[in-house]
Amino acid sequence: MIRRIGVLTGGGDAPGLNSALRAVVKTAILRYGWTVVGFEDGYEGAILGRGRELGLDDVRGLLVRGGTILGASNRADPFWFQHPELGDTEPRDHSATLLATLERFAVDALVVIGGEGSLTIAHRLSQLGLAVVGVPKTIDNDVRGTAWTIGFDTAVTTATEALDRLHTTAESHHRVMLVELMGRDAGWIALHAGVAGGADVILMPELPFTLERIVAVVERRRARSRHFTIVAVAEGARPAGGEAVFERTGPLPYHRKYGGISVMLQQQLTPLVPSEVRAVVLGHLQRGGTPTPADRTLATALGSAAVDALARGERGVMVAVRSHPTGRATWGIVQIPLAEVARGPRLVPLDHPLVEAARALGISFGQADEE
Ligand code: F6P
Fold this sequence. Notes:
- The protein is of the alpha/beta class.
- It folds into 2 domains: about 5-150 and about 290-340, Rossmann fold, CATH 3.40.50.450; about 155-285, 3-Layer(aba) Sandwich (Rossmann fold).
- It is built from 11 helices and 13 strands.
- The strands form 3 sheets. It has a 7-stranded mixed beta sheet, with helices on both faces. A 4-stranded parallel beta sheet has the order 7-8-6-11, sandwiched between helices. The protein has a two-stranded antiparallel sheet with strand order 9-10.
- The longest helix has 22 residues, at about 150-175.
- The chain is elongated and about 70 Å long.
- The termini are far apart.
- The relative contact order is 0.17.
- 6-O-phosphono-beta-D-fructofuranose binds near residues 12, 115, 182, 184 and 235.
């Protein structure tokens, strides 16, 4: 019997998190008469006891607000956590501390709004007996079992607008423009923004590229009097037989920060093509700002469905979108086991319809065997 639930936003922030929080709080209070406790900064607040009750007044006006009123953290893993307040000198397993904190707050169940990392942790907590339901968010759209994640549409919108703007200046100056977009393991943002923004080349982690092919595209376009080329490159893209580029690395997963592929490509391409080559890194602009209507509605539907799932007695699951909500026949929310999400990121399938369409339109993926 649930009377009180906790909620947290784990991992990197994404536009639509606040819309999801609003949906969780309103559904819990208005439909079920439960109380809701929000924990700050992802799992960190749930370990250290930084939680506060969230009422209807706390979520007023949140639908349109980017970021998360609770704060987020992509470093707080309860199974490998270190904090001076806990007297730690090195990271250790604090999952029991987290469970004790939730008990202290009299929380019967937890809603985790997070990406692959936070939801994998949710799975492990569920194996320890915690009643938990996950909600998928990440601009990367790489959570297994759901077609769409909260934040992706806004990030694609921002990235597409950037590509549109770069088109006009690239054309004026006859330049090759490399636009580095987020996406560590999966090229969803690069693919969608690349197609929507009319990129000539899309480079994704799923399809290691060759420099020669990018040079060939630039030359082919010049032969057709197109003296500029737009390349959309995911931060996790890598050359065939080579490695991805990191801004920094370290012993823990969150120490690894992708970044630098566009600058590396700029240096490598410059001596090989007659045009000037410039790199633009879009970075956290993709994570900030007001969520699009699609993200607001997705977050509302998923946040509300998570509370309904708990009320039905579902545990250890994530609410997921079956396919794109383009019409009544294709709109559906399902529950999938968190164990499935924990199997790793969802990559772009190479036979994805958008990959096929891009190829048909002559967009290059930097593959040696194209044409
Ligand atoms: O997972 C979301 C994401 O934005 C990735 O695309 C990116 O690599 C990472 O987070 C950046 O994290 P941080 O803000 O900690 O640098």
